[in-house]
Amino acid sequence: MARLEGLSFKKERIIVLTGGRAVKISALSVAFSFLVFSLFLYLEGANPVEAYLNIFSFALAPELGLPATLHRGLFMLFSALAFIVVYRAGIWNVGMEGQFYLGTIGAFAVAFAFPNLPSPVLIPMMLASAALFGAGYGAITGFLKGKLDVNEVVVALMLNNIAFWLVYLLTVGGPWAGSIASSSRPLPEPARAPRIWETPFTSLLAAALAVILYIFLKYTPLGYQIKVYGGNPNVARHVGISSLKVSVLVMALGGAISGLAGYHMWAGDAAFYLIPRPEAYKAVGDMTYWGIIIGLICLLNPLASIPTSIFIGAITVGSTVLVRRFRLPFGLDILFLGIITISFVAFQFFYNYRIKMRRG
Amino acid sequence: MLNSPQADTRPGEVVLEARGITKRYPNNVVALDKVDFQLRAGEVHAILGENGAGKTTLMNILFGVIQPDEGEIYLYGRKTRFKSPIDAINMGVGMVHQTRKLVQAHTVLENIILGHPKAGRLLNLRKVREEVEEMCRRYGFRIDLDARVWQLSAGEQEMVEILRALYRGAKILILDEPTSVLTPPEVEVLLNSIRHMAKNNIALIPFITHKLPEVFEVSDKVTVLRRGKVVKTINIREASMKSLAEYMVGREVLFNLTNPKVNLGREILKVENLSALNDKGVVALRNVSFSVKEGEILGIVGVSGNGQEELAEVLAGLRKPASGRVIFDGQDITRKSVLERLKMGIGYIPPDRLGEGAIGNFSLVDNILLNLYYDKEFRKSIFLNYPKIREYTKRLVSEFEVITPSVDTKAAHLSGGNLQKIILARVIPKTTKLLIANLPTSGLDVASAESVRNRILSCKEKGMAVILISEDLDEALQLSDRIAPIYEGRIVAILDADNVKKEEIGAMMAGVSQ
Known about the structure:
CATH class of chain A: Mainly Alpha
Number of strands of chain B: 23
GO molecular function (chain A): transmembrane transporter activity
Number of strands of chain A: 5
Membrane topology (chain A): Multi-pass membrane protein
Transmembrane segments (chain A): 21-43, 70-87, 99-117, 123-144, 153-176, 196-217, 246-267, 287-318, 330-351
Structural class of chain B: alpha/beta
Number of domains of chain A: 1
Strand content of chain A: 5-15%
CATH topology of the largest domain in chain B: Rossmann fold
Oligomer: heterodimer
Keywords (chain A): Cell membrane, Membrane, Transmembrane, Transmembrane helix
Subcellular location (chain A): Cell membrane
Mean pLDDT of chain B: 86
Strand content of chain B: 25-35%
Shape of chain A: globular
Radius of gyration of chain B: 25 Å
CATH superfamily of the largest domain in chain B: P-loop containing nucleotide triphosphate hydrolases
Mean pLDDT of chain A: 90
Low-confidence stretches of chain B: 1-7
Largest interface: A-B, 18 and 31 residues
């Protein structure tokens, strides 16, 4: 209880958090982070209102930033879903980066092996291979967690590192090396993702996956078992839900979803159609960590993570105007994303409490 | 030494007195009913009682964790109110908890000075070390002050806690189940230290449920609690272990359920030479054999920690036995999984309701679903048939008389009794042949416990075989057809519940050989 000029404030616990309140608080936290970032823009000599208008008009303009916004945003959606399905079982998936690299390897291996297959055959094969590679990689973490209770965060982070170097071995001077030093050969023509509404079809696949995952978690017996394990692993044990089975299953599912992003990213953007230099693919791999933040912000709801991913994508893409049009220093966009994240997290206080103000 | 307000007390002087302590809990449970208790300097005054006898409540009142509703506490003859444990500590009352409260990564010395008013300001470690060493000499503790706590055995860790309380100036020391996790040689050392402390005018109050014989060795006086009342305060010289066990479990029969005789059917469960380890890898169950028939309740009674938990877990498929066989309905199920057993009609009611039996932040529907998710009846193609599951839950809620605003209420918001009813409603209808009920009424108010007992009896009437695991001898005698006291992992005897003397079983539970 705090006092201020005859007013008293009291913290009150909220027992049931409604969806409406969650949305309202998220919106408020975004508004708050915009305010805070305004201060930095102002200090850098830019007009905040003008800057924001530029960010969003660029990110959402169909002829300018929109394709990239959707492509990047839905790339992060794959990661968010991969995080969500695993965290529903109470297990942290921080291995999306490595699973994404493995998916990349899976997709490219098929494309380079069968460059002459027609698209309708080759692309599904690439997707299946990407998912399988990602799933297998995720399952390692799940198996160690479920069988030996090895900490999943440590294992996944180590595997991320290994996966990065696997890609490196294949591209930089390796069997997939292209004519440009340190990046891979380009994908064969039929392997490239067809576009629907100016965006690769895999963007729609990501959105569809979100819907399927929502239904899977909410209405299927398997989804329920995952939820029980996440709710209380000990109770799960008492009703015959195996820790090993759940850990491997969710990590494989998460890995498969992350792996698909390995096709979406490189085969879905005309700027690539290959695996770029290590710094560049590492920068993309780093984006997968946004999946954790998006998943947590959306309270593990796959449907809510669709708009949230696109929103984060819009800011990632739109903030580039700060450098190009406003001549502001590099890194401000990352600062902006950081402020948004911290603000989201801080506002989660209001998921559990409300502040009552009283006179007297 | 610091902070000892009554630095010098004469031996035999009354240091702590509780008069007419009464404590009621919200659901009309009287935890303590006009408890009187007197403690003298240099005295070891044990408090005995079964689980639920009110020991914990009394302990918490004496240490200032909770306040009594009625009654007074006198410290050195002066009326006192402990507003919090800090108060109690500052007035020279120390407590050694059953679960260790130590910083594992720190040294013994650091743990001893932790929380001391002198710590936090400038610290003269050398002087502190001298003081602690002097204390160790005086009370006969042998411990390496520079060892890290995680390197110590359970017994040594307990020593550290005792030393910490003494260093804060405790003249009265409450010990919660002091010997429960110690090995026999460690117990010897502890008992020795207790004697040393008593000789130095420290008054000790060990609270005991099990391990009667050990306490017997060092205590001067014993107060026996039963259902919140003091049954007896007695000098140890005048008591025998048998009489203490009797006071603990009582003679009178308190409930009056009708326990109908049902014609026994086939043998449903046969356990042969079953042994199992506990979580620490120590043998907890030794060569247990018994059988249960349809329409029969076998009561397994014992104070907690004597292997009954491990037995229940082996039967439910949660723990792998070290040796032996479990035959269910003519089939060897020793290696079958929990799920296979559930599907065969074996139901298990675990003792820890919110830790094992139900998920607190799940709705009642989702909790009932715990026993339906594997059942094709409750599916619609590949999906769970939620409307049907909801209807089913509603029916169970009314059949089992669960009081709840709706079936969407979270389980954590139910009272203990209603939560237990939900667990029964989840398990019993899906159980066809064998029900294992592990402490089904522990911590429940009288009315809820009664309804749970009735429910168990009706399972038997329907022809199920029931294994009831209980720490409450009255309950076990009331419900069981046959009764098997268990002590240190062995079933002492299997007796017909109709003509058995309660004192006899009480003694078997306490490990007093015939």
